[in-house]
Amino acid sequence: MPLAKRTVLVLALFLAGLAVVGCGSAPPRAMSQQAFAERLAGHEEQALAQREAIAARLLRRLEYRHAEQAERGQAGEPFTYEILMLSSGGQFGAFGVGVLQGWSEVEDPAFRRPEFDLVTGVSTGALIAPFSLLGTDDSIRRIDQLYREASDQLATLRGLLFFLPRQPSFFDNQPLADRIASELDLATVRGIAAAHAEHRKLLLGSTDLDLGRFRIWDVGPKAVRALETQDPTEIHRMMLSSAAIPAAFPPVEIDGVLYADGAVAQGAFVGLDREEIVQVFQEFRERNPDAPMPKLRFWMIVNGFLDVDPELVKSSWVPGARRSIEVLTSYAMRVTLRHMQFGVELLGEDLDTQADFFYLAVPHDLELPPQTQRLFDPEVMKTLAAEGRRLGREPASWRTEALAPEIPGSALDLDPEPRETR
To answer: Using the 8-state DSSP alphabet, how is residue 54 labeled?
Structure first.
């Protein structure tokens, strides 16, 4: 999940600009202080209502799948509820797209890319998630094409004085916004709405800058509304907000609220906590006493490395800031991954059913082309996509072993202890 070095450099310049120039003037906000106070007061209630709606949709999907089993004469056989989580990672999203392509070529039907009941995405993962939910060869080809054609033209610096506080961001990402709009057209929205009708879920994550909270976008109902109005702009802005790297890209205003990159809060997510999932599955069992408990499979694609390479860092503040962010993001993803693993283990025990967790990350020993300090480097993305496709073709590539939050060797005390004498 590494950030591009150039992004960190311009972030450092931005902080320097703040110190020298001052905060400067900012455009007025559409939301008043009073409206903000009202929103803050009602936030918890709205969050609970959303979680209940997601849980209700999960229950309906379980019963929908059970009815499908009955129609096939397989009511006594447990089905598997499939969950795909796509992490943040910038240009490393090309790896995730490659995995999805190779996954569809697996010969073993037990490990071939399934139809997902729930897909979640953060940042670059949010760009991939809608096409993963559709799951057709054409949808995966479209998102692959976006990464293949990505370049610095998708985000251009705002002139020589890009770092001044009066600028909305370092980069102008309007070309990226236009590309999202062209790829997520009404035909794609129609596919998302059709999945929603079958109670399959698409959840994207952004960071609510005003409240300092992680915001989950439930895209299915938005897709239904977009078809009614023939306007998918709202979904486009949700996707753009999830991928709005702080300072590099401008925050996205939706209904008067400022949203930025979801990875600021979480690098990946499920959408419901373990207790809520347990409650839903137990309610399914109570409502369908003759049905076997469904199985669960959690698939997580980490669009980045889980370790950082050792490096002799120069003793100045820009390299220090860059390196600190690399280490921070690496450790944060490892902790997220371990929490996911542990949660799935407990789910299996709570429900007395099979619950599996599989994950893939960019191999630590993958050699990438020389870094060019670009946000979107075509050669880097080409290498990542090829490696993702190679791993996606091989079911044995998926990892299941428990991952320690700490990078091996990180807790060593290298200072020799004084010898004890009698």
So the answer is: H
